[in-house]
TrEMBL record, chains A, B:
Transmembrane segments: none annotated. It is found in: Cytoplasm. GO terms for molecular function: inorganic diphosphate phosphatase activity; manganese ion binding. It comes from Secundilactobacillus pentosiphilus. The gene is ppaC. Mn(2+) 2 binds at D15, D75, H97, D149. Its EC number is 3.6.1.1. The keyword Cytoplasm applies. The lineage of its organism: Bacteria, Bacillati, Bacillota, Bacilli, Lactobacillales. Residues 181-307 form the DHHA2 domain. Its cofactor is Mn(2+). It catalyses: diphosphate + H2O = 2 phosphate + H(+). This is Probable manganese-dependent inorganic pyrophosphatase. InterPro entries: DDH_dom (IPR001667), DHH_sf (IPR038763), DHHA2 (IPR004097), DHHA2_dom_sf (IPR038222), Mn-dep_inorganic_PyrPase (IPR022934). Belongs to the PPase class C family.
Length: 309, 309
């Protein structure tokens, strides 16, 4: 059996990196020859997590077809979020918790998606289905990924399955997940160490909506003023990036992970679609979105609907 | 929770109907309000199966949005194989064993695909994962679906998971699957009772390949001469249907389910792509394809590749 690479999306967050490591471990136990890699360097939060549990970061790759013919995807399926040469390899497995969009294959494959808060939750259950034990260190990483994706189980994407997985993983890893979770979220939101360009690309994903190229970034913080005070620089970085990469519309969502409110910055067009999507009025290309914390559940679907209306 | 309909593809075969019934049963046990329906009348084989196990056929529907807002799909995902108004409803769950093509959603969903011989095999394992017992009557139906899709475990699509599921279901249903399987396959191939038009539409599926509308039907038989002797009528029916529905290319694969050989009839263009796909030369728009029994594994992928080359 030829070797396959396992990886999450570009601009990887903690789940994109950890889910690749967890799924690779599971698949290796099931007899596959696999290596977890990443499509980018770990962010601050992920670096904290890997250091906390004493695990090395996966190797970073930009392309995959120079190494393998077959790959497994975690935490994404849309081609523009994947390796640059994803069209040149065969996707044999996907584990994801996003919408399916633009993902087409020539042959049948393994595809496992559930509308839960985190891919590491799905993989936790796949370990149980296959009666394979999760090592304590890996359980700590997976626990961190769920805390990250669900903002300590407070995001509206959180399901009972995420809550159950957190409890089970915390027990295996022997971690007090609430105190550890706050420490981890804070470690991931030290914005002063980041340039404006880093802020608007740190967790950015690309989407195609009604033919338009849409970029959506999310900045997690424990104090929205840390972002708002940098508004001019952030908008300039958004404009620079949009010109360079050809994005029609660029949204940056700054989210206070402790109180679950967001501030939205918008560059590009059509802005009226953004206003319609979030039932708001932009003032100086900015709007407050109280209660919005989930890009996947509270930003992408209404924006897609507004584009298609 | 609002009611959802569960259904397989148009021109339903035994798995399309049975998998919908099995998945609806499983989901009802998991708390969903569901009804299994079908996008067409049961074929001869399915009628034999339903009668054998004393189960009524599911209600036949053409559209779904007049009844529900949400649906669950089994044994297909490509929109052209689904309900005519599939774009007007939300797909919340899919269980399938085909390639993913043209299937896009606005929101995350449950998607479970595995490259095994039959969807009823996947659902058999989902019952186990959820620790829910399969009633004997339903086990008999699911066993029949696997025998049908894998031609009694002889199709190249057959996997160890299908073999294990057949054994488990045969035990629950208390059926000698080998003698029952031959009886069932023979019951499904009484071609004399069908018109030429029925033969070329009985198990037909539509595909889009390189922008062309491609229709592929499969006729199972226990004697290829029963099909070859009707060649003129079958080609006329293919031509009529292609003109009426606007298919660019129409393939009918007649398969001997007992010895695993097929005869291919071709109407429309591009015929050179068909010859390239199957490394054969058409003679009077016809070719023998020894060892070919699986549309999904031995017809669609090489044809798709040839179209894209």
């Amino acid at each position: 059996m030829s070797k396959e690479l396992v990886f999450g999306h570009k601009s990887p967050d903690t789940d994109a990196i950890v889910a690749a490591m967890a799924y690779a471990y599971l698949q290796s136990k099931l007899g596959y020859d696999v290596e977890a890699v990443a499509l980018g360097e770990p962010n601050m939060e992920t670096s904290f997590v890997l250091k906390h549990f004493g695990v090395a970061a996966p190797r970073v790759v930009k392309t995959v077809s120079n190494e393998v013919d077959k790959v497994m995807l975690v935490d994404h399926n849309e081609p523009q979020q994947s390796a640059d040469d994803i069209a040149d390899v065969t996707v044999t497995h996907v584990v994801d918790h996003h919408r399916i969009n633009g993902f087409n294959t020539a042959a049948p494959l393994y595809y496992r998606a559930e509308p839960v808060g985190c891919v590491s939750t799905i993989i936790t259950n796949m370990f149980a289905e296959n009666k394979i034990d999760i090592p304590a260190q890996l359980a700590g990483l997976m626990l961190s990924a769920i805390i990250s994706d669900t903002l300590l189980l407070k995001s509206p994407t959180t399901t009972d399955k995420d809550r159950e997985a957190v409890k089970a993983l915390a027990e295996i890893a022997d971690v007090d997940y609430e105190s550890y979770g706050i420490e981890m979220l804070k470690a991931g939101t030290n914005l002063s160490a980041k340039s404006d360009a880093e802020l608007v690309s740190g967790d950015a994903k690309s989407f195609t909506m009604a033919g338009k190229s849409v970029r959506i970034d999310q900045i997690n913080t424990v104090d929205l003023n840390d972002v708002i005070s940098r508004e001019d620089g952030i908008k300039k970085a958004m404009n620079d990036e949009a010109s360079e990469k050809g994005y029609d519309l660029f949204l940056v969502l700054a989210t206070n992970v402790l109180d679950s409110n967001s501030e939205l910055f918008v560059v590009g067009e059509p802005k009226d679609v953004v206003e319609k999507a979030f039932k708001t009025t932009l003032k100086d290309d900015r709007a407050s979105l109280p209660g919005v914390v989930s890009r996947k559940k509270q930003v992408v679907p209404p924006l897609q609907d507004a584009f298609e209306a």
